[in-house]
Design brief:
Blueprint (H helix, E strand, L loop, with lengths): L7 E6 L10 H4 L20 H8 L4 E7 L8 H15 L4 E5 L7 H9 L4 E6 L21 H7 L2 H4 L2 E4 L6 H10 L5 E3 L10 H15 L4 E5 L11 H15 L4 E3 L12 H11 L5 H16 L3
Parallel strand pairs: 1-2, 2-3, 3-4, 4-5, 5-6, 6-7, 7-8
Helix pairs in contact: 7-8, 8-9, 9-10
Length: 302
């Protein structure tokens, strides 16, 4: 099998159609603080034809759509829109919805998502400290907050996973969450956000990743690792990718583009050609698991 033939399930990407006010961060008058800086280049419609053009020669056979901060007053509205898109185009093949576990209406939101056949998981980005030295255990909105956990425990009733996006210094709380709710699968987004590539930053990130990986009901998506101002290359990203594969094992890692967001720092081809180069020495079965089989098992795309 050549690299061009290698089947890919893109485990994390986005679609959006602007103009209806559903995406405040993309349509509002004021930008939000963003880890890649200026994101004006993605303030445009991004739909199936755009995604197909971007993935180009790479053999993307299915995809998993991640919620994209749709208007939180109607979190199930995005799920409804995505099912209409799937009915018209066949894409995406699995959906991750928006949910806020401490909200009074969380039971209804989860039931609303679960009523749609493509929904496999939900995401909330728990309250995060801006740096490791400002981390406060159990802060309101964090994974140790009793209100967060009261809503989180409802996931098991619907058989839903939890997609977690948080900086690595919160991964100890994530490990505790995984331990205390062993029947709920946690999928860490964006590789634990290893934005600090200094030796101390990588050491802290590695420790957090190892704590989370010690819980068997966890997995990780290798995505979202762009570094502002630097080209996405195997040389820049190799350590993070290889360490993640070592820590979690090839059976719990998934490849993903985070497109179109990561188009701010790389082309689709740069990301997937880079991931293929970094993993070129892996056994064929492990490589196929990373690019395809793990996402197939975890998300069960239609």
């Amino acid at each position: 099998m050549t690299d061009d033939d290698l089947p890919i399930i893109d485990a994390h990407h986005h679609f959006w159609k602007l103009g209806s006010g559903h995406h405040p961060w993309l349509e509002g008058a004021h930008d939000i603080p963003f880890r890649y800086g200026d994101y004006s280049a993605i303030k445009r419609d991004y739909l199936v034809d755009d995604f197909r053009r971007d993935h180009g020669r790479h053999n993307v056979v299915k995809s998993v759509h991640m919620e994209v901060e749709w208007d939180p007053s109607d979190p199930v509205g995005e799920t409804r829109w995505l099912h209409e898109l799937h009915d018209r185009t066949g894409w995406p093949h699995a959906v991750i919805g928006q949910a806020w576990f401490a909200r009074d209406d969380i039971a209804g939101v989860l039931a609303g998502h679960a009523a749609f056949p493509l929904v496999r998981s939900v995401r909330q980005k728990p309250a995060a400290a801006p740096s490791p030295d400002r981390f406060v255990a159990g802060a309101p909105g964090s994974m140790a907050d009793p209100a967060f956990r009261a809503g989180y425990r409802l996931l098991a009733e619907h058989g839903l996973h939890y997609d977690l996006q948080t900086p690595w210094w919160h991964l100890g709380e994530a490990a505790d969450l995984a331990r205390d709710f062993p029947d709920t699968q946690i999928i860490l987004n964006h590789t634990g956000l290893p934005s600090d590539r200094s030796p101390a930053g990588i050491d802290g990130w590695r420790e957090g990743m190892e704590r989370l990986a010690a819980q068997p009901n966890t997995a990780v998506k290798i995505s979202g690792i762009g570094v502002p101002g630097q080209r996405w290359t195997p040389e820049l990203q190799g350590e993070v990718v290889r360490e993640t594969l070592r820590i979690f094992g090839a059976g719990r890692c998934m490849a993903a583009s985070n497109f179109p967001v990561d188009s701010l720092c790389a082309s689709y081809d740069e990301i997937f050609t880079g991931l293929k180069a970094i993993t070129a020495d892996m056994p064929q079965g492990d490589r196929r698991a990373f690019f395809h089989d793990n996402a197939l098992r975890i998300y069960q795309p239609a």
